[in-house]
Amino acid sequence: MKDKNLEQLEMDRRTFLKTTAAAGAVGLMGSSFAQQQPTADQVVRGKNPKLVVLSPRPVVLESTLELLGSERITSKANLFVRNNIDLPGLNTTEPNVQPGWEVEFSGLIDKPFKVTVEELSRLPQTEVTTVLQCSGNGRSFFNPRPSGNPWTYGGVGQVTWRGVLLKTLLEAKGVNLDPKARFITMNASTQGGAAPYEKSFPISVMEYSSAMLALGMNGEPLPAVHGGPVRLVAAGTFGTANVKWIAKVEFTASESSGNEQVPRYRVPVLPGVNIPILPTQPGSRYNYTLENSRSNWMANINSFILSPLPGASVRGRRVDIRGVAWNDGLAPIETIEVSLNGGTTWRKALIERDNGKYGWYHWVSPQLLAPGEYEAMVRATDAVGRTQPLNGNVWWNERGYEWNGIMRVKFTVT
């Protein structure tokens, strides 16, 4: 798979999705549905029909490189969706207006309490721009392909959240944490019979990742399909830790042992060590436990080429190769490099940093190119030396999480 260019991969994936979705629908929903896969706007009201439908229920929609490159802040119409549960009536980009919605706080705190969205809206609000990304983004580039939704590059976007920091809320309520509290354990609402969804992340994330109860996105009330009326957001983390439709927050001594925490959303590690990830033999199985693996918490370093697009033909001798890079925000990205000769030599790109430490670093690499065929590669490196592997498959894992291999884009100069 790694030798196929991205354009062909995308064509193959779309064909596969349409074929398998139609085949499954014949048995489940009748032959009329089998004739046509629903478009994204039919699955979620208000979404751009150009998004790729990976699953209509629970909703999984993938954006495209073209859409991601068309706007600095990813609009609600173009933002990907990865839902593990479906709450009835919430598959829309309109707000989820439910007066009196409560979030319960309990566990290792001295004063358990409940707070409504109305109370949250009256507390001091904070805005933060972050990269939101599914930890399975890029899964299709692992070889052999792991289980799960066949994401390519579109399970990511940049959005601006508005809400109440957890620190601010606890201070406003006069709540103190028990010294034994090490994790924040979150539960989504089960209204309408939705399946339980429970996740945990280290309590330290609350301190350095602007963890908040978000009420708004991109200057509007939080869209229903993206977790409205309130979701937990922790900047710099993968989307799985940003629980939608939040109903309960517990401060706990250990992380959840529920299915969404283990075995799902985990990668192998050496026992007792969180870093580095332990490589596994491609195609092998792994018995995930809390001891021999870690959860997908902090996002790893990554970079994309957004122009030229794969398969594009560009005119002129000067070609500006453009894109974005990001990481978990714990260290600044210092270097972004572009290669046009298979990684033999690299040339530094010019970095624009205009979205904050949790957002995209926009970059440009001006090139003087003669007519011909080219393949551009990009890699990012941050201040503590974290960078992208030339071959992302070195970190193959059977569930296909945390792909950050170097991106390659083929294009033509005419």
UniProtKB/TrEMBL annotation:
It is an enzyme of class 1 (oxidoreductase). Its cofactor is Mo-molybdopterin. SUPFAM superfamilies: E set domains, Oxidoreductase molybdopterin-binding domain. GO terms for molecular function: heme binding; molybdenum ion binding; molybdopterin cofactor binding; sulfite oxidase activity. NCBIfam families: TAT_signal_seq. PANTHER family: SULFITE OXIDASE, MITOCHONDRIAL, SULFITE REDUCTASE. This is Sulfoxide reductase catalytic subunit YedY. Its EC number is 1.8.-.-. Residues 99-258 form the Oxidoreductase molybdopterin-binding domain. Keywords: Metal-binding, Molybdenum, Oxidoreductase. GO terms for biological process: sulfur compound metabolic process. It comes from Meiothermus taiwanensis. Residues 297-412 form the Moybdenum cofactor oxidoreductase dimerisation domain.
